[in-house]
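Listing S7. Sequence submitted for prediction.
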Amino acid sequence: MKMLELRIENLNERILQITKGEGGREPEVNNLLRELMEQGETVKAVKEARKALGLSLLEAKQYVDAL
């Protein structure tokens, strides 16, 4: 339940950014995710993406891979 609430909160924040013309700004967690990926810590990056963005396991893996 908490993951769903976090996901809804993140989606609402993203919608507000887009409506304010800030759609190009990326989430702050991306810097941490890139750093973890550079260190070869893909699993930790996926876990952080799930926690910070409220994504499912598959979505988080795809998100990290796209960075």
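Caption to Listing S7: primary sequence and predicted structure tokens for the chain studied. The radius of gyration is 12 Å. The chain has a mean pLDDT of 83.
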